[in-house]
Amino acid sequence: MKVCVTTAGEGLDAPVDSRLGRAQNLVIVDTETMEAETVTNPGREAGHGAGIQAAQEVARTGASVLLAAHCGPKAFEVFRQAGIEVYAGAHGTVQTAVEGFLAGTLNKLERADTAVGLGE
Amino acid sequence: MRLAVASGKGGTGKTTVATSLALAWEATALLDCDVEGPNAHLLFHPEIESRRAVTVPVPRVKEDLCTHCGECADFCRYNALAVLPRRWMVFHELCHSCGGCRIVCPTEAILEVPRTIGELVTGGRGPTRFFQGVLNEGEAQAVSLIREVLAQAPGDGVTVMDAPPGAACPMVTVVRAADVALLVAEPTPFGRHDLEAALSAVREIGVPTAVLINRADWGAEGTRELCRRHGVPVLLEIPHLRRAAEAYSNSIPLVESVPDLRAPLVGLLPRLERLAGKRVA
Question: Which of A86, A105, B89, B226 has its Cα between 20 and 30 A from that of B59?
């Protein structure tokens, strides 16, 4: 399974970025092999709709799960339509976030958990 | 002449001044362009004749033609579109109705449909036509509705436009459509700060500008000095008058509650017309 984490750096040791739309990067982790690939988040400098842009990029990577600190309503709608599950409460590094997800300690969102422009 | 009555700060007396100028001048039209908080009718008391919905075009996709190539979403600088491998999504509140997505679509899969953002109220009082934009609650596209209100301005005569507060797009849209701007300022630290932002905006736009200081007896020297520094004339100072405030709270316009102000307000017309003549086309 491919899992995407919002980060401020590259690879498994990068810290989780508390922002989603304006996160520096997106790290895609294959949970079978723990191989990590880093892509730039195109939403990070968007004037508007950063979360929407980030969510589209996540969909493009083929990830089926997103791990983030929070998720706003517009980005959440894109994830929902894309069939990507969103887990909130990710913190620490990419590695610890993925381990937390695999251990079932992250919180699967049924709806956005923050207002427009705060999670994005 | 088209006059924009504007201010950086809200609550300085724009609507009070705009409605009383329209009355004192027996203006051709009064346009309430403060579409996010339209209230000129409360002081102007026009007869309302009609209301009609104002729409903006927004994109809709013909699913059978869409290949989900993503060209439209890449083009949209407001990120109002999201294209997923099997889905096409639009976020109306981010769409600025530029039509670019329809143009760039290689399969002509996008059409435009109208979306209501508010209404245009039409009426009049005596010789003065009245137009007011009312933006729907929660709606972000104020400028589109303001443009619709501005489009109602008669081609000749004197039109008074009550601008939205601030120095951002809504205010700029109204001031750009004007021959001359009158900034209503209040002599407080907040008033001075926001007046300076408004002065910078009007200078950038290139519209001749004058200032009216409201509640000038609160100590207006700092405001006068600011205007001197910007080379903008202060055409009128109105003191803080209890009877004006009481009348205002009862929806009575300034020009009626303080009849002494009628002559100075009437006198502003030729002075503003002279300034307007200096507008660089």
Answer: A86
